Amino acid sequence: MINDEQPLALLERALDQTARVIDGIRPDQRELPTPCADWDVQAVVQHVVGQDLRNFTAVAAGEMPDWRVPADELPDDWAAAFDSGARLVLATWRTADLASLVVGPGGEVPLGTRTNQQIAELAVHGWDVVRSTSQQINLDPEIADHALAWSRRTMRPESRGPGKAFGPEVPVPDDAPSYDRLAGWFGRDPAWTPSSASTKFST
Q1: For residue range 132-165, what is the model confidence (pLDDT) as tens digits?
Q2: How many folded domains does the chain comprise?
Q3: How far apart are CA 197 and CA 201, in angstroms?
Q4: Which of 33, 65, 142, 173 could form a disulfide with 197 if both were Cys (CB 3.0 to 4.6 A apart)?
C-alpha cells in the first residue's frame, strides 16, 4: 500500500509504462488475440484509451463514472491519443484534494485511494498487450506488486465467473514473477501466448 505522498507518483509510472507499451504495437499486430477473453489488441487499447482514461479523469474530479458507456472510437494514432488522455488524468489528479472523502464500496474512503484501481487496470492491460505483441519491455514489478496487493484486498468473489468482470483465479506459485501472479489473480494464464490461442478473438 502506498502512502499519501506516493499514489500519483506510482500512477504516473503506470501511465508512462502503458504509453511505451502502446507505442510499441506494430500495425500488423492490431488484430492479434490477447489473454483478455474476446478482445484482440485493438479492443484492449480502445478500452484503455477510449474508456479507462475518460473514467479515470472523472474519478479524479470526484465524479462517479458510468462504466456502461461504451469506449470512444480510436483515432489512427493510438500512442498520441493515449498520451493526451494520460496528461488530462494526471492534471486532474494534481488539482484534486486526495484526502477528501468519497463514497466507496465499503463506505467513505479518501479520494486518493481511487488511484489504486487505476494502477491495477493499467498494469493488467499493459501485460495483456505485451504478451500479445511479444514486446521486449521490462515491466515495472512495483506496479504489479501494488496492483496485486490492492486487488487481493478488494476483489469480491462475486466478480468472478461467466459473464462477470473476471474469470476464476489461475493458480500461480508464490515465487513466480510479479506479473505472472497478477495475471493469474485476474483470471489470465501466465503461460498464454498468441500461438496458444485457438481462435482469433474480436470485439
Answers
A1: 999 999 999 999 999 999 999 999 888 888 777 7
A2: 1
A3: 9
A4: 33
